[in-house]
Amino acid sequence: MSAPIIEFKNVKKCFGETVIFSDFNFKVEENEIVSIIGPSGSGKSTLLRILMTLEGIDGGYINVAGESLWHMPWQGQYVPANSKHLHKMRNHLGMVFQHFNLFPHMTVKRNITEAPMRVKGVSRAEAEEFADKLLQLVGLADKADSYPNDLSGGQKQRVGIARALAMKPSILLLDEITSALDPELVDEVLDVIRNLVKEESFTMLLVTHEMYFAREISDRVCFFDKGAIVEEGEPEAIFTQPKEERTKAFLNAYIGQ
Amino acid sequence: MNGFHWDWAFTWEVFPMILTAAKVTLLATLLGSIFAIVMGLVFALLRRSNSRTLRISIYWVVEFIRSTPLLVQIFFLYYVMPEFGISMSPLATGVFALGLHYGAYLSEVFRSGIDGIEKGQWEAARALNLTIVDTYKDIVLPQAIRPMIPATGNYIIAMFKETPQLSAITLLEMLQMAKIIGSENFRYLEPFTLVGILYLVFSLLAAYGIHQVERRFPKEGFSLK
Amino acid sequence: MEFGEIVSVLLQGAVVTIQIVAMALPLAVLMAFSFGLIRLYAPAPFKQIAIVYIEFFRGTSALIQLYWIYFVLPFFGITIDAMTAAVVALGLNIGSYGTEVVRGAIQSVPKGQYEASIALNFTSSQRLWRIIMPQALVNMIPPFGNLAIELVKATSLVSLITIGDLTFKAKMLADTTLQVGEIFGVVLLFYFVMAQFLVFFIRRLETHLSKGLGRGGLHS
Ligand SMILES: Nc1ncnc2c1ncn2[C@@H]1O[C@H](COP(=O)(O)OP(=O)(O)OP(=O)(O)O)[C@@H](O)[C@H]1O
Ligand SMILES: [Mg+2]
């Protein structure tokens, strides 16, 4: 069996006095799709943000693709990573944000080609060709020259997905990518993800409040509460026969809606 | 021969003179502020008047005052007022100019402060049948004052820092004193540096003071008188 | 004196005023960007230097800075002509206020923009110059416009170190003729027109830039 592509070992994370993770352990296998569900404030976003290097950690280790994410070897010891190491590690990861965070001063196409060209040194022709393909995939081929502010929320998020894919990350992080959208726009975005995983294999870590989506797409569902995994398992097991009281209460609250 | 060195004896000799002149600077700032606040209120209220012509004229008056140099306005008052038979002391001219100039700036602060009061408050005042004067005095101003403190304070500090321009009409404030001392002794280093430091100290103190006033000010406003 | 003659003397002064603005403005913008960025991103000792510069020039007054540079620097063996003193003093003074404009505009770019640019693995300088700065520039235009007007107004101070600008000519004419009302009226009008011209120019620039930068709105 190969080593997990993501591994958290005794990770500690605090915001000032508030402890989010005290001793967190977690693994994701290559090409596994893991959904994270749980109440607000339980640390779901923080988990993804730590992986994307948007937040540091206060203890423990994280491995990504066999290398330490937040530490690097130096004179036989592990020391906090410098920006060069982080730059290297980020190549494995891509993220789609709840609030899209598209660059408003660039066209849709520029949003998608800028990073491959500037960061990876891909030629313009090649970057644009790939961008066209991605736009096709997310169904926005006709919007290449629009600016983000002229798009609907669902369209913006589909560009967000295309932009992340353009860097060809091996791990994709999705943080509540539909919760800023009007209900009728949710499915057009989720369909893109559905198609994506049908065509290619991805390691994907997604935080979501769309339970039906988590159930249909995931290999594994983790229920989070207060910075710890309370229960995890195959989606069918979690959604039909939760063992823990807290999981039951959380899922009941959803069904009740 | 030229002094790269700082002459402490000379410093101590001129320091009291500059402090005396500082009183004039502070007096001009104080009187200028009072006048500016009054003018600011007048402009702000006129810009809310029912007459469109009046509102537009006041807008351009304020715009004109704000976009022309204080120094030229000082000269204007100093040279032109006597033409109309009004002769004022340099201090009075200076206070007049500072008040007018900063009154124009403050009117914008007051206007947006008053505009910040919810519509419901005006309607409630009307429902209670309050007169317009009582509405302003009892309802609007008490609520509007706190948010206006920082901007008003900053403009008063800005005014303070422009008082050296009154030396141009021979008012014996700090800079004028430093200039006189400098030209009599052929040594500008100490007097000008002292004046600079005093301005820095006073404006830092004032910024701290304004912060304190704002902090102490009751959040829910207070009733006038 | 003929009214036409007065106006022509004043016009000579106006040319000098515009020359000073044209030289001091680039200096102010340069100071604003360099020290604004140092203040935000540079390591400690440089940051301290920037803070000293900013606090010093904002905390004392422009006229004192002008006098200090013109009258005191010669004591240190640095003799500069009045024009240079004027440009340096006004450029540094307005520049110190500009640092706060640059800082504020950069900080007002939504945090999500930084995060997206980290997630896409841009280097820190690419983040600043390709993602953050183009958006911050749009926010800077109106406050920089106001500072440009403040600069035009502040140029009148140079008349006090014997530079023949608009204000200097006005005072000279006022001392020699009796038509003080006309003279200062025309001078005030000159300054007003210059300011209005700047306002117009800034509005154009703002609409132009925000169009090019994604239709003005910055939230996507
Ligand atoms: N930058 C920060 N500074 C201080 N506290 C923070 C910060 N970011 C997150 N937190 C706190 O950490 C806790 C976990 O936050 P996180 O965003 O990970 O929750 P979440 O599970 O994603 O919740 P939600 O479902 O609402 O998105 C919350 O209590 C939050 O207030
Ligand atoms: Mg979250």
From TrEMBL, chain A:
Gene Ontology MF, one: ATP hydrolysis activity
Record's keyword annotation contains Protein biosynthesis: no
UniProt xrefs under Pfam families: ABC_tran (PF00005)
Membrane topology listed for this record: Peripheral membrane protein
Keywords: Amino-acid transport, ATP-binding, Cell membrane, Membrane, Nucleotide-binding, Transport
Locations listed in the record: Cell inner membrane
Superkingdom classification of source: Bacteria
Residue intervals of the ABC transporter domain: 6-251
This protein's GO CC annotations: plasma membrane
Cited Gene3D superfamilies: P-loop containing nucleotide triphosphate hydrolases
Family: Belongs to the ABC transporter superfamily.
This protein's name: Ectoine ABC transporter ATP-binding protein/hydroxyectoine ABC transporter ATP-binding protein
TrEMBL record, chain B:
Transmembrane segments: 20-46, 58-81, 192-210
Membrane topology annotation: Multi-pass membrane protein
Top-level taxon of the source organism: Bacteria
Localisation: Cell inner membrane; Cell membrane
Assigned keywords, A-Z: Amino-acid transport, Cell membrane, Membrane, Transmembrane, Transmembrane helix, Transport
GO biological process, one term: amino acid transport
Coiled coil: none
SUPFAM superfamilies registered for this protein in UniProt: MetI-like
Record carries keyword Ligase: no
GO cellular component: ATP-binding cassette (ABC) transporter complex
InterPro entries recorded: AA_ABC_transptr_permease_3TM, ArtM/GltK/GlnP/TcyL/YhdX-like, Ectoine_EhuD, MetI-like, MetI-like_sf
Keyword flag Metal-binding: no
ABC transmembrane type-1 domain boundaries: 22-210
MF GO annotations: transmembrane transporter activity
Family assignment from sequence similarity: Belongs to the binding-protein-dependent transport system permease family. HisMQ subfamily.
Protein's name in the database: Amino acid ABC transporter membrane protein 2, PAAT family
Species annotation: Marinomonas polaris DSM 16579
From TrEMBL, chain C:
Main location: membrane
Domain of life assignment: Bacteria
ABC transmembrane type-1 domain sequence ranges: 14-199
Gene3D superfamilies: MetI-like
GO terms under cellular component: ATP-binding cassette (ABC) transporter complex
Pfam families the UniProt entry points to: BPD_transp_1 (PF00528)
Record has Transmembrane helix as a keyword: yes
MF GO annotations: transmembrane transporter activity
Name recorded for this polypeptide: Amino acid ABC transporter membrane protein 1, PAAT family
Protein's organism: Marinomonas polaris DSM 16579
